[in-house]
Amino acid sequence: MAASLTQKKELTVKLIIIGNSGVGKSSIMNRYVNHRFSKLYRATVGTDFLSKTETIDGASVTLQIWDTAGTERFQSLGTPLYRGTHCCLLVFDVTSCVSFSALEQWRKEFLIQGEPKDPDSFPFIVVGNKTDLPDREVSSRRAKQWCEQFGAEYFEGSAKDDIDVEKTFLRAAHMGLQQY
Ligand code: GTP
């Protein structure tokens, strides 16, 4: 991180989590922030957000994590929610090809609504969730190949078994800080 940033006392990084309904967006956020997982499915209505503060390179960084409802039509989430985002997490379920294919549309919609300063270099993290399940439909290779097209980073894991969730959010925080 740049020296000028570490001198700032409080930094806030806005992260947004988007993707189809049921892929585990709320679950990865809850696993990361509250260290909890629930088998019960409760659809997110509208949006929800949680904060967590981390020390990164000696600076106190508050991650403001926005969890969105996958059932919403893309457009209805709207510009105010997307604006000012520092890093966007595109989540799919590795046992669902449909949820993976939908990421193209989610990404486009984010770029239209969020209007990031430089769309070509805006940081996206693609997250393949539910790797604990046996009936996988999307390979790591396929997901990585898709990410290469626009320079996204790929992480996969499981909110249920707590596989690589923290690593994913910390990477998102680092990438978000680079947007300052
Ligand atoms: P919406 O709010 O409708 O957009 O859904 P969401 O993407 O937030 O999904 P949510 O976190 O509510 O999870 C949906 C279902 O998948 C729940 O029953 C979770 O328990 C389950 N789930 C989430 N993550 C995992 C995981 O890593 N492994 C397994 N096996 N199940 C998971």
Automatic annotation (TrEMBL):
Per UniProt, the keywords (alphabetical) are: GTP-binding, Lipoprotein, Nucleotide-binding, Prenylation, Protein transport, Transport
Q: Which GO terms describe its molecular function?
A: GTP binding; GTPase activity
Any one annotated GO CC term: phagocytic vesicle membrane
Membrane topology per record: Lipid-anchor
The main location class comes to: membrane
Q: GO BP, one example?
A: phagosome-lysosome fusion
User: What superkingdom heads the lineage?
Assistant: Eukaryota
Q: Which residues form a coiled coil?
A: none
Subcellular location(s) of the protein: Cytoplasmic vesicle, Phagosome membrane
Q: What does this protein do?
A: Controls vesicular trafficking from endosomes to the trans-Golgi network (TGN). Acts as a negative regulator of TLR9 signaling and can suppress TLR9-triggered TNFA, IL6, and IFNB production in macrophages by promoting TLR9 lysosomal degradation. Also negatively regulates TLR4 signaling in macrophages by promoting lysosomal degradation of TLR4. Promotes megakaryocytic differentiation by increasing NF-kappa-B-dependent IL6 production and subsequently enhancing the association of STAT3 with GATA1. Not involved in the regulation of the EGF- and EGFR degradation pathway.
Q: Which family does it belong to?
A: Belongs to the small GTPase superfamily. Rab family.
Q: Can you say what this protein is called?
A: Ras-related protein Rab-7b
Q: Which organism is it from?
A: Mugilogobius chulae (yellowstripe goby)
